[in-house]
Amino acid sequence: MGRLARSLRDGIGFDTLLVFFTLAYLLAFAGLPLLYNIVLSFQSVDMFALGSLFHEVTGLENYRAVFEDPLARTVLWNTILFTLGSVLFQFTLGFALALFFNQAFPGSTWFRGLFLAGWVMPGLVVGVLWNWLLSGDFGVINWLLLNTGIIDDPIFWRSDTDYSLLAVMLANIWYGVPFNMILLSVGLAAIPEDLYEAAELDGATAVQRFFTITLPMMRSTIGAVIALGIIFTLQQFDLFAAITSGGPAGSSMVAQYWSWELSFRQFDFGRGAVIAVMMIVVVLGVAAIYVRSTRQETRL
Amino acid sequence: MSALNENRKNAVLFTIALVIAAIYLFPLYWMYVTSLKTNSSIFAVPPEFLPGAPQWQTYALIWNESDILRYLKNSIFIATGVTLVTVIVGAGAAYVLARYRSIWIDIALFTILMLQVLPPSLMVTPIFVAFTSLGILEYPRIGTILAISAKTMPFFVILCRAAFMSIPRELEEAALVDGNSRAGAFVMIVLPLARNGILVAALLIFMQGFGEYVYSASLIADNRLQPASIGMTNYLQPNVVTWNAIMAFAATYVTPILAAFVLLQRKIVSGLTSGALK
After folding, report:
1. Domain residue spans in chain A?
2. Residues 45-74, chain A: which have Cβ within 8 Å of B?
3. Does the distance separating the beta carbons of A280 and B119 come in below 8 Å?
4. Does residue B13 sit within a domain?
5. pLDDT per position in chain A (300 positions), as tens?
6. Which of A15, A272, B204, B217 makes an SS bond possible with A262, Cβ 3.0 to 4.6 Å?
7. Residue B47 domain-assigned?
8. What is the CATH number of domain A63-298?
9. With contacts defined as CB-CB under 8 Å, which chain B residues touch A97?
10. Is residue B104, in this structure, part of any structural domain at all?
11. Shortest CB distance from B250 goes to which of A36, A114, A125?
12. In a domain, B32, yes or no
């Protein structure tokens, strides 16, 4: 038996082969597209140029077109607003629920698990459900708001430019709460019980215990959860497709949807690639911070 | 605290939990209730929170008229393909990354984590252009499976790595002492022991493939090959009024996912939490 075959079956070659197999796949279907994205952003690519891998090079023309687009400012603002709003509320609600279910009462673990039913749903279906809940004339949310006197006239969530982004954000908050809650629950469970007992003996109130024990002990978990929240929110696409399609008049357009729309509705793949490249830089930046911070804490 | 007080406190907490869970799960309840209403009662004001006589014929209607069976078959085809590719290509690396610590392992892990965060709606432009010019989109569902798998693979590797890390190294070493090769010990000892973790991770990947939308919507032009997520959007034309039919479609689509979730809830939760924060 040759040395190579031996090594592949029984030595370091075996490990190398296994890792190489996976990395080669990821390189082919994620790494190369990532680089190709950058190439495309400098080229003019329309429907008729799809036959070949390389196209007419137009330099920074696509970038110029994107920045001068009247929609660009709205999209930038919407993306920031959507991300911050979603992450803030997902995190706050998720943390509140995690704290609540951290009190061990009969059935607490089971109830907590129920919330993940939202998380396992396909994003598109979640969008369709919220589309119906937020319907203008017959939506159950408008009915509730009208009857509790919070609003006087029905809100046309999907067709009112003031509310369309909020409509998608509401759905996204609902969708993201379970994940935040579960991860924060894991962090809470890891805090040693005797810390709380000692503080209680010293006469610390529940609020004091939260700020002097829970928050400091949870710092790395909170950082990780918020970073993951930003990453997942910047990936959110299905809810936009199912609720507003970025409309009306671009009022709920965010970068990750705009990129797709330029490519697959206007068939201007070069400009779609421009937005994709810029957004990917942002996402990878957040991810790098996340990986570095968790690495220090948990020996990745 | 006395036992009586403890009981009362538990009862209060239990009630609050019940209310919160009911509020959170209301959208799912509303989907099922709406799907069973008549064409006129879906528009009743105030809304009817309990269904009247269940209108099962709506399900029969979408079953016969919306090609939902074909859509679901395509969803299953894509989800199965994604799961097979992800598990076969990803399990080995998860094992190696769990066994060793070195600078190379750290670099590989970092690369994998970075690739996990790439938003599909941004990656689909280069993938579409490349796949079209390379002729891969002659087989659109295969192309879609390859693209989705690149997205699910990092998540699977991270979850699976956690499962492999929980297997004592001594068991593997004992197998090597008994004369097994590394490959033999991996297949005979490690894989069977990590079976549960791998299955849970594979199930989560299957669910993702089953509900996937971006790649399918962008890469599959032929209506006959599209999955159920796109079948739903075909229903969602502007000014739709048949919300009961749409909800029946949605319910048919997600009930298998929810059923799997309810049956395996505890394993999914523990699998998820062990992988996500490490």
Report:
1. 63-298
2. 45, 50-53
3. yes
4. no
5. 577 777 776 677 888 888 888 999 999 999 999 999 999 999 988 888 787 888 888 889 999 999 999 999 999 999 999 999 999 999 999 999 999 998 888 888 888 888 989 998 999 999 999 999 998 888 999 999 999 988 888 899 988 999 999 999 999 999 999 999 998 998 898 888 888 888 888 888 888 888 988 999 888 889 889 998 999 999 999 999 999 998 898 999 999 999 999 999 999 999 999 999 999 999 999 988 888 776 654 443
6. A272
7. no
8. 1.10.3720.10
9. 20
10. yes
11. A125
12. no
